[in-house]
Amino acid sequence: MSLFKTSRNVELSVIYYLETQIKADWTGVSIVKSFINAYKEPLPVVAIRLTDCDYTRREIGSTTLLTTYTITIDLFCKSDGQRIDLSDFIIDKLKDGCIYYDHSQTSGDPETLTRVANGRLHTMRFVSNNKVDFGEEGVDIYDKFRSFIQIQMRKV
C-alpha cells in the first residue's frame, strides 16, 4: 500500500469534496485533476489542482512549518450564466472548508484510492475569482466562458 504525502492529500481531498458536492447539485459537469484534461471532456468542466505551497515557521525558533496550499480551479462552461452560477456554487461550498483525507492506493490497483478522514482543510483566503476573457473573435469553445478561482487553505 502506498500512502501519499500531505500536499497530494490536500489536492485529492479538495477534488473529492468538490466532486461530491457538484454531482449532488449539478448534472453533466465533469471534474478533472489537471488543466490539460479539461479539453478532453464535454463542457462544462471543472479542473482542480494544487498550484502552490507556502511554508512559514510556526513561531520563532521552531522547526515546525505552517503550510498554506493554493488550490486553482478552472471552470470551462457553456454560457456566461453557467460560469457565474458554478463559480458562486464552488465559492459557497469551499467557504467553510472540507474534510482532509489521507489517501492511499494498493500496488495491484493504482486507480482505486482508499481514503481515511484525518482532520479538516480550512479556507484561509479567496485569492481570486475572475472571468478569463479572450475576446469574442476566434475563441475556442472551451475558452469562451471561463473562470479562474484561487483559494488558500491550511490543514487543521
How does this model look, in words?
The chain is an alpha+beta fold. The protein has one domain: STM4215-like (2-Layer Sandwich). Helix content is 25%, strand content 47%. The protein is built from three helices and seven strands. The chain has a seven-stranded mixed beta sheet with strand order 1-5-6-7-4-3-2. A hairpin with a 2-residue loop joins β5 (98-106) and β6 (109-132). The chain is globular.
Task: Provide tags for this entry.
156 residues, alpha+beta, STM4215-like, seven-stranded mixed β-sheet, 3 helices, 25% helix, globular
How would you sum up this structure in a few lines?
The chain has a single domain, classed as STM4215-like. It has helices at residues 6-25, 80-94, 141-144, and strands at 2-3, 30-32, 45-57, 65-76, 98-106, 109-132, 146-155.
Write the layout of secondary structure elements.
Layout: E1 2-3, H1 6-25, E2 30-32, E3 45-57, E4 65-76, H2 80-94, E5 98-106, E6 109-132, H3 141-144, E7 146-155
Task: Provide the helix percentage.
Answer: 25-40%
Given this structure, which CATH class is correct? Alpha Beta
By oligomeric state, this entry counts as single chain
Shape: globular
